[in-house]
Amino acid sequence: MLDQTPKEISERKALRINPCKTCQPVGALYAALGVRRCMPHSHGSQGCVSYHRTFLTRHFKEPAIASSSSFTEGASVFGGGANLKQSVRNIFDVYDPDIIAVHTTCLSETIGDDLNAYIMELEIPEEKQVVHCNTPSYVGSHINGYANMVAGFIRYLADKRAPKSELVGVFPGFVNPGDIRELKRLLDLMAVPHIMLPDTTGVMDGPMTGKYEMFPDGGTTIEEIRALGGARHALALGSFASTEPALALKTKCAVESTVLPLPMGVRLTDSFLLTLSALSGKPVPKELEEERGRLIDLMLDANPYYYDKTCAVFGDPDTVLGITSLALELGMTPKYVLTGTPGEAFVTKAMGMLEADGKAEGARVKAAGDLFELHQWIKNGPVDLLIGTSYGKQIAKAEDLPFVRAGFPILDRYGHSYHPLVGYQGALLLAERIADAVMDRMDRDCADEDLEVVM
Ligand code: SF4
What we know:
By secondary structure, the chain is α/β, with parallel strands linked by helices. It folds into 3 domains: 24-157, Rossmann fold (3-Layer(aba) Sandwich), CATH 3.40.50.1980; 168-285, 3-Layer(aba) Sandwich (Rossmann fold); 287-450, Rossmann fold. Helix content is 46%, strand content 13%. It is built from 18 helices and 13 strands. Helix 8 links the parallel strand 5 (168-171) and strand 6 (194-196). Helix 7 packs parallel to helix 10. The site of iron/sulfur cluster has 8 residues, from helix 2. Iron/sulfur cluster binds next to helix 2.
């Protein structure tokens, strides 16, 4: 399918081919699904929200609910205030959520709809909430949309008069429910009482009960978001997805925060746990030390299959930085590291990791890049392995590369969103997948007489 991708690279400024990101509202919608009894609402035309819902449903294999202001030509010319008013009334009457989280779209942003003013004019039933954030999709990516929505919840709901508590606010970053479940387990083991915002466990990985629940039993409650205002500290995991919520909490409620990378691989998980240990004043429990030990054991056992292998890593910035860190720990050389989300900090961080491990020479790192360019890099200098989202499968096929799926979205496989990539457990899973891909390739390519049962 991509066999015709040319090897010759030409500099492009105004064109993305095979983008490595999606639009802001997808991230905003996902964040809103992590708040209990929340209806995400797309302020724009029906086509947009239909795409956003489909995108999330295809990754999580779960229904992603959302409503729309259903713009037609009239709203596009005269503004969408009347549509929003009618929508909010209908949504509370028909679906009865506790909260509606409105995000904008390209259309409502372009015509300049003032959501602050619209929401102030709404008749909102008692005990119900309407919040909003701006998600213009012609800038940024779904990661920015996610960050904007989480910050939106804080700006509207976090209460600076909330009683001071021992709770730590945790912004988990743009990760799967499986990751959030694992983060909560680590926080519990480290005895750190916390409020996770958002929390998509139980919502986007709900069990099959035979009964459809529009609002599954999961998500951060409105009371918990209010209580964030009295938190003793906040942890923002993944600087691209979580810095903005942390800043919003600091601005509104003067809660200090620590921004950490997503805890993926050994070093970054160590640093996360040591931060938790400093917060709780308690040592890392034996159970986690043993998990770490098992991970190191696997890394040593399978080392011959990792050592000196080159790889290309692509996807969302925080996730890609975490995978790059793990790949370096495994002894691999991440030759190409790319995200579609803009932000030169990504280049600085990724290059810093490669330099620290003496692997920067010949490496290419890019933010706001696309998969066409990644494919061209690979054509000019092949790698042993490709690691990233489902959109890499065409490159893997064209270049006959082993391919490990990790990140968002995974549209062509099942079960990914249940399993963590964070923590020692997540690293164990990813390290196993990487070794499997390399070893499967060896089995497939070797001569019959060299096919080993014991490896
Ligand atoms: S018009 Fe904008 S908001 Fe709507 S789907 Fe396209 S990029 Fe996303």
